[in-house]
């Protein structure tokens, strides 16, 4: 008689030990918790200090301004009485940044998808390295390249836009001259923020759970359908965050804009006409030659840029928080 052993169920693994007060109060945990809390508090203190400094110096200038700071087109703090306003600067900053975002974000998302889901590994790694390397190029190098290369080569594009889209008024060219305008600045800013948006978006797309993609492929989805149904919903919040990072650089870019733009204080809806101005460019151009009141006026414009950046980033956080489908965890 042969006796065979019947398999028995293996005993369940013991549960992990509960977290006790002793383990929760280890010196390393206390140090890490204190450093983390201190870093957050330090960040808030720095932001508050910057806001207080800008507010105090701005108030000193605004009390002497004879014009409306938000609607005046002139900038002459040295006049008697002093008159200065940010209408042209606000318009130029917003318009150039919007042009940059409209051009850069779709291209950056496409590059990120190509690197993460289409390109062979031997091509994806060098391409990703080149894109990351573009983010390290100094702003002044972009500015010199824009002034010497981009501006001359955009004359033909400006003429084409004026010929075929001049009826829109926006692309109507009413002056003869080099392409030192807000449209050129927007294209240059798009090139500058492209590597930032691409790098962040690429890393987000690479974090998509493989099970989601494999499940879609198993159901017969094409590669584009996998990207549309699995990758883009998962990475939407990351793309928004990447876009806000790029927008932050576009709003505050200084040297590249100052090198390319031919500034003036004429508000024009003709984007192909030379002129315009931005907050950062105006501060960089006038700070050295300004007197005490002029510097306080420039600081007042910097306060507006500071608040504008906070509003943009806060709006992005609200969009992500209020739309649950933007969360990758819900993809």
UniProtKB/TrEMBL annotation:
<feature type="transmembrane region" description="Helical">
    <location>
        <begin position="40"/>
        <end position="62"/>
    </location>
</feature>
<feature type="transmembrane region" description="Helical">
    <location>
        <begin position="82"/>
        <end position="115"/>
    </location>
</feature>
<keyword id="KW-0813">Transport</keyword>
<feature type="transmembrane region" description="Helical">
    <location>
        <begin position="238"/>
        <end position="261"/>
    </location>
</feature>
<dbReference type="InterPro" id="IPR011864">
    <property type="entry name" value="Phosphate_PstC"/>
</dbReference>
<keyword id="KW-0472">Membrane</keyword>
<keyword id="KW-0592">Phosphate transport</keyword>
<dbReference type="InterPro" id="IPR000515">
    <property type="entry name" value="MetI-like"/>
</dbReference>
<dbReference type="InterPro" id="IPR035906">
    <property type="entry name" value="MetI-like_sf"/>
</dbReference>
<feature type="transmembrane region" description="Helical">
    <location>
        <begin position="297"/>
        <end position="320"/>
    </location>
</feature>
<protein>
    <recommendedName>
        <fullName>Phosphate transport system permease protein</fullName>
    </recommendedName>
</protein>
<feature type="transmembrane region" description="Helical">
    <location>
        <begin position="127"/>
        <end position="154"/>
    </location>
</feature>
<comment type="function">
    <text>Part of the binding-protein-dependent transport system for phosphate; probably responsible for the translocation of the substrate across the membrane.</text>
</comment>
<feature type="transmembrane region" description="Helical">
    <location>
        <begin position="182"/>
        <end position="201"/>
    </location>
</feature>
<dbReference type="Pfam" id="PF00528">
    <property type="entry name" value="BPD_transp_1"/>
</dbReference>
<feature type="region of interest" description="Disordered">
    <location>
        <begin position="1"/>
        <end position="26"/>
    </location>
</feature>
<comment type="similarity">
    <text>Belongs to the binding-protein-dependent transport system permease family. CysTW subfamily.</text>
</comment>
<feature type="compositionally biased region" description="Pro residues">
    <location>
        <begin position="9"/>
        <end position="19"/>
    </location>
</feature>
<keyword id="KW-0812">Transmembrane</keyword>
<feature type="domain" description="ABC transmembrane type-1">
    <location>
        <begin position="90"/>
        <end position="316"/>
    </location>
</feature>
<dbReference type="InterPro" id="IPR051124">
    <property type="entry name" value="Phosphate_Transport_Permease"/>
</dbReference>
<keyword id="KW-1133">Transmembrane helix</keyword>
<keyword id="KW-1003">Cell membrane</keyword>
